[in-house]
């Protein structure tokens, strides 16, 4: 899997509102109305994540889900991360 160039990452971020780069990873924090919505997001996202075989680093406390995406085998941000970020946004938008 090829890494994205800095210009490609910046172009991708323009299509992914709320996402940024932090510590060399695509980064986003979602805030849901409550724990049930946050957990529902994670459970629903898990199906898409498993189908892609591309697992995020994520952290949940009550209504908050923090996600970092990187392609470990590529050593940085790849097109797979951008695709997963877009899928996660689509899932989150249904619950927000």
How would you sum up this structure, described in words?
This protein is an alpha+beta fold. The protein has one domain: Transcriptional coactivator/pterin dehydratase (Gyrase A, domain 2, 2-Layer Sandwich). It is built from three helices and four strands. It has helices at 6-14, 35-52, 79-95, and strands spanning 20-22, 25-31, 57-61, 64-69. Strands 1-2-4-3 form a four-stranded antiparallel beta sheet, with helices on one face. Strand 3 and strand 4 (64-69) form a beta hairpin. It is globular, with a radius of gyration of 13 Å.
What are the defining features of this structure?
96 residues, alpha+beta, Gyrase A, domain 2, four-stranded antiparallel beta sheet, 46% helix, 22% strand, globular
In brief:
The chain is of the alpha+beta class and 96 residues long. It has helices at residues 6-14, 35-52, 79-95; strands spanning 20-22, 25-31, 57-61, 64-69. A four-stranded antiparallel β-sheet has the order 1-2-4-3, covered by helices on one side.
Describe the secondary-structure layout.
Elements lengths: L5 H9 L5 E3 L2 E7 L3 H18 L4 E5 L2 E6 L9 H17 L1
Antiparallel strand pairs: 1-2, 2-4, 3-4
Helix pairs in contact: 2-3
CATH topology: Gyrase A, domain 2
Overall radius of gyration: 13 Å
Q: Identify the overall geometry.
A: globular
Largest sheet: 4 strands, antiparallel
Helix content: 40-55%
Low-pLDDT sequence parts: none
């Amino acid at each position: 899997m090829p890494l994205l160039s800095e210009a490609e990452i910046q172009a991708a971020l323009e299509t992914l509102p709320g996402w940024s780069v932090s510590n060399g990873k695509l980064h986003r924090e979602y805030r849901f109305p409550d724990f049930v919505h946050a957990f529902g997001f994670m459970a629903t996202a898990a199906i898409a994540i498993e189908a892609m075989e591309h697992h995020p680093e994520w952290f949940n406390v009550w209504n908050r889900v923090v996600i970092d995406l990187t392609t470990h085998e590529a050593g940085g941000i790849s097109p797979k991360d951008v695709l997963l970020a877009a899928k996660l946004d689509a899932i989150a938008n249904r619950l927000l």
